[in-house]
UniProtKB/TrEMBL annotation, chain A:
<dbReference type="InterPro" id="IPR006311">
    <property type="entry name" value="TAT_signal"/>
</dbReference>
<dbReference type="InterPro" id="IPR019546">
    <property type="entry name" value="TAT_signal_bac_arc"/>
</dbReference>
<comment type="similarity">
    <text>Belongs to the bacterial solute-binding protein 2 family.</text>
</comment>
<keyword id="KW-0732">Signal</keyword>
<dbReference type="InterPro" id="IPR025997">
    <property type="entry name" value="SBP_2_dom"/>
</dbReference>
<feature type="domain" description="Periplasmic binding protein">
    <location>
        <begin position="48"/>
        <end position="306"/>
    </location>
</feature>
<dbReference type="InterPro" id="IPR028082">
    <property type="entry name" value="Peripla_BP_I"/>
</dbReference>
<dbReference type="Pfam" id="PF13407">
    <property type="entry name" value="Peripla_BP_4"/>
</dbReference>
<protein>
    <submittedName>
        <fullName>Sugar ABC transporter substrate-binding protein</fullName>
    </submittedName>
</protein>
TrEMBL record, chain B:
<feature type="transmembrane region" description="Helical">
    <location>
        <begin position="42"/>
        <end position="64"/>
    </location>
</feature>
<dbReference type="Pfam" id="PF02653">
    <property type="entry name" value="BPD_transp_2"/>
</dbReference>
<protein>
    <submittedName>
        <fullName>ABC transporter permease</fullName>
    </submittedName>
</protein>
<keyword id="KW-0472">Membrane</keyword>
<keyword id="KW-1003">Cell membrane</keyword>
<feature type="transmembrane region" description="Helical">
    <location>
        <begin position="127"/>
        <end position="146"/>
    </location>
</feature>
<keyword id="KW-0813">Transport</keyword>
<keyword id="KW-0812">Transmembrane</keyword>
<feature type="transmembrane region" description="Helical">
    <location>
        <begin position="272"/>
        <end position="290"/>
    </location>
</feature>
Amino acid sequence: MTDERTAGVNRRNLLKLTAVAGVVAGAGLLPARSASAAGELSLKGKRIGISATGTDHFFDLQAYNAQIEEVKRLGGEPIAVDAGRNDGKLVSQLQTLIAQKPDAIVQLLGTLSVIDPWLKKAREADIPVLTIDVGSVNSLNNATSDNWGIGKDLALQLVSDIGGEGNIVVFNGFYGVTPCAIRYDQLVNVVKYFPKVQIIQPELRDVIPNTVQDAFTQITAILAKYPEKGSIKAIWSAWDIPQLGATQALTAAGRTEIKTYGVDGSPEVLQLVADPNSPAAADVAQQPAELGRVAIQNVARYLAGETLPRETYVPALLANKQTVGEVSKKLGIG
Amino acid sequence: MLVDAPYIPPSVFGLEEKTSPEPEKSGPALGRRLATLALRGGSLAVFAGVLVFFSIAAPFFLTVGNIGNVLGQSAIAGVLAIGLTIVVIAGGSNVVTGGIDLSLAANMGLSAAVYATLAQAGQGDAVAILGALGTGLAIGAVNAAAVTLAGIVPLLATLAVMNVVAGLELVLTQNTVVPASGEFLSTLSASGPFGVPVLAYVLLGFTLVVAAIVQYTPLGLRLYAVGEYPDAARAAGLPVRSFVAGSFLASGLCGGFAGILSVSYLSGSTTGAGEMLLPVVVTALLGVVFSRRLVPTITGTLLSALFVGFLINGFQLLNISSTLVSGVQGLLILLVVSATTLLCREAV
C-alpha cells in the first residue's frame, strides 16, 4: 500500500516533473536552438560573392544590405556587386566574380535566360551558387517566398473582393521572370474556376524603367476605353510598382471603385493600402531582409557540410485593408 | 592627365607674347606639339598608372584570365564606339555640328532583337546573322539619307532615328527578354585559347581590320580629309557626301554586329539597350587622348574602351562601389574636352 502510494506519488510527481521539465525544456529549446544554430554558423575566412541585379527597389535593397550584414556578422568577407538593372553589367559582374573564385556566389533576382549560362559556368568552376528568388537548375538552393502561395492568396483576395465576377486588367510584362510567371499562373488557375471573371485582352505590359509613369499612362488609356463604372473591377500586377502607377491613375481619374492588387510590400504601396479611400486593395509583402539573411545562413550551412533543400521558403504576409497595420509593423516600416 | 596640366599654360602664354610683336612660326607649333605630347603621354601615363595600381592592389588583376575577361566585356561597347569613331572622323569632331551617331545603341538593341526573334522562329544562324547585319545597315542607310540627302544635322537626324529604332524594338519584343541559343551563339560566348573569351578575340580582330582600313589605306586618309577639311577635300575632287553617307553605313553595320555580340553575351535580346548610348559616346570622345595628334582614331577608341573596362573591373576586384566609375569617367571627359579646347584655341 505504502509502496503503492509512494510509487503513485512518485509516479505523479514524476509526471509533474517531466511536465515541468518539458515546459522548461520547451521554453528553453526555441531560443536555445536558434542561438546554437547562429552560434555554430560561421563564414570566418570565407569570401562570399553577392551579385544583385539592382538595388533600386525596396525589395532588392533590403535583401542586398541584409546579405552584406549577415556575411559580416558571420565573420566572412562580402564581395557585393550591383548591376543597376543592366543585363550587360550583370553578366560582366558575374564573369568577373567567377574569375575571383569566391567561396560561394549568391545571385539576387535576374532574368533566368540571361544569368543561367553564367551560373552554370560558376558551377563548372566549382563555386557553389545559391540564389534568391530565381529558380535555376544551377543553383544549390533558392531562398524565396512561396510564390505559389503568394499568387494564390492574392488571386483569392481579388476574386473575393470583386464578388467572383467582372473584368480585370492584368500587367504581364515579365513572364520571363520566374516569380512573376508563377504568380501570374496562379491568378489564371484561380480565375479558371470563376467563369464570370474575365481577364481583359490584350494584357498590359509593365516596363522597367519608368514603371510608375508607364503604368499610369496605360491605365489612363484603358479607363478611357472602358468609361462606364463597373466595366473594370480590378487591376492585377505581379509586383507592386505598376500597382502604384495604376492606383495613382485611378485616383486621378476618379475611378476609385476599381481595386488594385500587387506583390512586394513596397512602403509607398502599403501606405496606399492603409488609406481607406485608396483603390489599393491588397499587397502581398515578402520579407526581403529575411530572405537575404536566410540565403547567407544557407551558404554557411552548405560550407559546413550540410545538405541544403532545393528551396527555402520565407513566409509572405498578405496586407489588405484589415491587416496592413500589422504587416507594416512586422516589416519594420512606419 | 595631371602631368600635362603644367605644360599648357606656358605654351598659351608663349603664344600670347610671341604672336603680336614677332610672328615666329616655331613657337606656337612647338608649344602645341609639346602640349599634345604631354596630353597624349599624360593620358597613357594615367592608363598605365591605373593598371599598375590595380595590379598591386588586387593581385588577381594582372592575370591572362582577367585581362581576357575585360577584353570580352568591352567587346560590345568597343565595337559600337569604333562605329561612332568612323562617323566622327568623316563628319568632323565638332560635338554639335560634326559627325555623331546617336542611334547606335538603339541600333544594337533592334539588331539583337531581330536576331533573337529570327532564332526563336526556328531560323538558322546564317539567316539570323544576315537579319541582324541587314537591320544595322538599313538603320545606317536611313541616317545617311537624313544627313546627306535631307541635310539634317547628324545630332538631330540620328536622335530622331534613335527614337524610331527604339520604338521598333519595343514593338518587336513587346519590351520583353527574347532568349536565343544556338551553336554559333554558344561558340561566341565560350572561352577560346588560353581561357580567354572568344569575344575578346573578336574585339581585337575587329579593331585590327577597321584600324587597317581607316589608318593605313588611301580610303582612310580621305575619310580624315573629308572630316577635317571638307572644303579642301571638295576642291580636291573628293565626293564628300558619299564619304559621310558611307561612314553612317559603316556605323550602322557596326550596330548590327554589336547586336549579334550582345545576343551571344546575354543569351538573347534584352531590354535597356538605350542605356549603352552615353557610355559609347564617352568612350569615343575619350579615345581622342589616346591618339598621337589628338584626333579620333580606331586604336585610340579601343584603348579608351579598355580603359573604361579596366576601371570597372578593377573597382569590382577592389570591392569598391561601381557607382564611382561613371564619376571617374566624367572627370576624365571634362579634362579631355578642356585640354583639347585649350589646344584648339591656341592653334587658331
